[in-house]
Specification:
Blueprint: H1 10-33, H2 35-58, E1 71-72, H3 89-116, H4 122-143, E2 149-150, H5 151-174, H6 181-189, H7 192-201
Helix pairs in contact: 1-2, 1-3, 1-5, 2-3, 3-4, 3-5, 4-5, 4-7
Length: 202
């Protein structure tokens, strides 16, 4: 995962966001003409995004059980906490870039989940992103294979999920999808976890 620092900069992040925003708008437009087909493609995209996230976050850096277990539970510890005081500027920059990458990974995941839902709603998808991030950190801890378990990863993953949801919601409104009162009433009435699971099942 750390190798991503060589590719994350202002230009690549901007291009990434433009591509994801374009995909969100395209899916919204497609929803108007072929909703069933659009949702099937969106589900396939969601699974593809999930595979990429799992490969990037769970693939071990070293043999299982050979790492030194470390759990960072203080938000921002590696960015502006006491630990950052003992780092070189290049180390702090690398941590910041990694957290930007952590957020970016969940943006297309949330967009695809929103596009795949029958009745898109931000909150249940956001809960799902947070839950997925917590599961990933738990797996990393259990594997003990060279990855640091960090609460900041959960925060930035969830922030990326929130940004993806808001991006998809804005695209839906711009294309005239998901703005009807019946959609909003249904989203408000459903239990968040049940709604999220229903969205993933399609």
């Amino acid at each position: 995962m750390w190798r991503i620092v060589f590719y994350v900069n202002t230009w690549t992040v901007s291009l990434f966001l433009v591509v994801v925003a374009g995909a969100a708008v395209g899916l919204g437009v497609w929803r108007r003409t072929a909703p069933d087909r659009q949702r099937r493609v969106a589900r396939a995209l969601w699974w593809a995004c999930l595979v990429v996230v799992l490969v990037a976050t769970v693939a071990p850096d070293r043999p299982l059980g050979s790492g030194i277990p470390y759990v960072a539970m203080t938000p921002g510890e590696g960015l502006w906490g006491t630990a950052a005081d003992y780092m070189y500027p290049s180390e702090r920059h690398m941590i910041l870039v990694l957290q930007i990458a952590n957020a970016a990974m969940f943006v297309p995941l949330a967009v695809a989940a929103y596009a795949a839902a029958r009745r898109p709603a931000v909150f249940p998808i956001l809960v799902g992103c947070a839950a997925l991030s917590v599961v990933i950190e738990a797996v990393q801890l259990a594997m003990n294979a060279g990855r640091v378990v960090d609460v900041d990863d959960v925060i930035f993953n969830t922030t990326g999920g929130l940004f993806g949801c808001l991006l998809a919601s804005a695209a839906w409104r711009a294309t005239g999808r998901g703005t009807g009162p019946d959609v909003r009433r249904h989203a408000a009435r459903e239990h968040p976890l049940r709604s999220w699971l229903a969205q993933l099942r399609g």
